[in-house]
UniProtKB/TrEMBL annotation:
Presence of keyword Signal: yes
Protein source organism: Janthinobacterium aestuarii
Residue span(s) of domain Thioredoxin: 13-149
Protein name: TlpA disulfide reductase family protein
Domain of life: Bacteria
Signal peptide span: 1-17
Keyword set includes Heme: no
Key words, A-Z: Signal
Length: 149
């Protein structure tokens, strides 16, 4: 009887270690944005919404960091309507690819409560290295990127 909880924990940790993936509609152009496009590259995923004030406040930090990084890819993922997200991007230009997703994607990347903003740093094998619910700051981003890449 005591083996079942241990087996469930083993299966859960095994599932969490699997490489992650997505195939999402682009917001900043036509076509799709697939995580597989960035094979063998660490990736920062930033989940946001147009009505999220902390998302707006952290945007300059993410843009500045993305501009400095050569090997690290940044992807913005709007949890929003297409119209609202595109209107937002017209006002707040993005320097990295942007996609659109449903809230159901958030638990896949460890956000069970579906709060925003939410940032995930993936290893080059597209496994979660670290994640943060709430806005990022430059110090946290620099420290965690260094630890994960």
């Amino acid at each position: 009887m005591t083996r079942w909880p241990a087996l469930l924990l083993l299966l859960a940790s095994h599932a969490a270690a699997a490489p992650l993936s997505f195939d999402l509609a682009r917001l900043d152009g036509d076509g799709r944005l697939k995580l597989d496009q960035f094979q063998n590259q660490p990736v920062v995923l930033n989940f946001w919404a147009s009505n999220c004030l902390p998302c707006i406040r952290e945007l300059p930090i993410l843009h500045a960091h993305a501009a400095k990084q050569q090997k690290l890819r940044f992807i913005g993922i709007a949890i929003d309507t297409r119209a609202a997200a595109q209107a937002f991007l017209r006002q707040h230009r993005a320097s990295y690819p942007q996609a659109l997703a449903l809230p159901a994607l958030l638990p896949t990347f460890g956000n069970q409560i579906k709060g925003l903003p939410y940032t995930v740093i993936l290893t080059s094998q597209h496994r979660i290295c670290t994640r943060r619910l709430g806005p990022v700051d430059a110090a946290w981003l620099a420290k965690t990127v260094a630890a994960c890449t």
